[in-house]
């Protein structure tokens, strides 16, 4: 569908150079650095400042282009890159080889933000970077993904921290024509638009397309001059508006996004919703099916949801999107009339257990319209089961249907040139594009000397980068502080460098090191074994506490007895992150357990030989072993779902003890050859064992094999006919459910087993629709038991169910009746349950 790229350049490219436009418009250059030399040759100043190949091409002078067109060396470089690009486009992929006949309609991936490159500022943090990394890995693997998002004119805010430590926010305007995107044109060369109705008007959305290797990202933008002025700004900023604007944005993304897919003739095989923000896409999917087939809402919901995957990314229930009921009814009454759904019925989909006064929860809506639900780490699975337990009343936590896929990062986007060279030598060029079975670093060729040299070079480059940024920050603020310290000149190329960069917010505890300033000062000022610290991070504009945390660090940095050993880099973004994670020796992460859903920044240091010192939480609770890094409070298992600070003191003490007794002595433990052998052994373990596991490659393969492919199959089984019969059965169940009741329960011993029998009265219900299970909790007799019982008909609606279970006192066993139908994913799709009291 997209037309040739050359048409939209501001300059007409000389014929010899037309291939440049194709290269510049494929964001593959954000991880595949083959074409860097071209952009640098065209305009090194613009390239170094922006890392935006499309901007380079659009801002260079016509004269320079003519010169390059006649430069044989440049043409040779370009020809080689175009040939390599052609080869990439033609090459076989992991997915193509393993699953040739599946996902023909593609996976539609919805997310509110995408972090693909610093020059495409459509992200705020973890969620966006994860989505960007997932798309890049899908491209590597050949998994057919089409992504949908919003094009923000201003995106998330840019940060400056003034001398008083106050965060100042800026919203620079991004000219979309200078971003590496294209207007999406249809066969008639018309710019594709879709419309979404808001009360009393219709909002037009323009569509842009970004190419990410083999995948495409479609971006909707309301800044169409034909819209009313206030509507042009709906897609201006990310996460800054009030609730009404947020609702409008989510309607654009969900309703607009689904219409766009339809307009393009795409019938997705699977829909993957990331966070509740995009749940309206699933609603629009239902509406479209109702319109096309005349099905009712319930049937269409059942028919569509089997192949909808909802991934929850938050551990904090207050992080979910909530909308006042009044706003929902204002914005959706016309819409609901069209699908024949009453307002109350709709509101119920966004609320738990009939509590009508509650706000409308987008995560609840997403769950009610999905066929599977997953969290993003094992710890997060447990937390999510708590958070969503209201949707599954009377279900034990263990049975709440939340799966998990631990996040991963797109390794080729985060490796340093030095690390890339070493890995290429050990494992070849396409090492991150397959199933990662042969990832290792042979110690013969990749010696300790080489690993240490790699680490040193990376640290030196980081310090050069820090000095550059700090010099600018210092001059901008032009104050009386010690210039040497504030320009980073006191940083030491050879000192142990600790990095901490993330959103400044309470639960992430960026101030844990400041709980004992004198202890920290001792470590920083140690003559023989100094520690230095690099900090970065933004606080949400409304998060006053987060802003205070930034202020505390800035005040600490001003202390003259700190001797320039701690620096704070403004405006944490993808570029800053890249420099930090490549250069630091140790990455620090100190969230309050269990609030880190997963955390991904620590994964980015792995490939580069950085080590993690982190709270035993999120991904680190799965990855940590004593020979790969350090964990704070590693026996943490108790869940306290309040944002309790009760362990802060203890965790801070443990953090200092780890630094003093293990991390610092380990780093400076050089042998006679000047190498810290034990440290290097840890680096080698961490690189070899963790890099493949915490890659987006592994994550995308897991989503593909365990979710996308089986879900597509389930949806195919749900034909219109099957769905109709399911709806009728569920209606019958609904009617008869209040009549079901338990009778006598009895048992006889058979050796080590107990044969338990239970009477159940089922009225006229077909027992095939139900499942009777015998459940015992874990106790001194053994682990949890959930055993299905087999039924025999006795008389007029009475059934006798039996099963054999390990011997325990009979009162340990409780029977329960649940819906039993192998076509449904239970209890997600029907959480009815009846326990024998
Ligand atoms: C990786 C990354 C994040 C996410 O880091 P967490 O460890 O999940 O806090 C946030 N922002 C940027 C710029 C990143 O690169």
Describe the protein's architecture and organization.
By secondary structure, the protein is of the alpha/beta class. It folds into four domains: 5-90, no CATH class; 110-318 and 370-407 and 710-715, 3-Layer(aba) Sandwich (Rossmann fold); 491-694, Rossmann fold, CATH 3.40.50; 721-835, Immunoglobulin-like (Sandwich). It is built from 28 helices and 28 strands. The strands form six sheets. Strands 1, 2, 5, 6, 7, 8, 9, 10, 13 and 14 form a ten-stranded mixed beta sheet that branches. It has a six-stranded parallel beta sheet with strand order 17-16-15-18-19-20, with helices on both faces. Pyridoxal-5'-phosphate is lined by residues 125-126, 129, 502, 572-574, 577, 599-601.
CATH architecture of the largest domain: 3-Layer(aba) Sandwich
CATH class of the largest domain: Alpha Beta
Global Rg: 29 Å
- Which percent range describes the beta-strand content? 15-25%
CATH topology of the largest domain: Rossmann fold
**How many distinct folded domains?**
4
Global shape: globular
Which structural category fits the helices and strands? alpha/beta
Largest sheet: 10 strands, mixed
Residue ranges: pLDDT <50 for 5 or more in a row? 1-7
Could you report the average pLDDT, rounded to the nearest whole number? 93
- CATH superfamily caption of the largest domain: Glycogen Phosphorylase B
Portion in helices: 25-40%
For the record, give the distance between the C-alpha atoms at the N and C termini, rounded to a whole number. Answer: 61 Å
Number of strands: 28
Q: What ligands can be seen in this structure?
A: pyridoxal-5'-phosphate
SS summary, helix count: 28
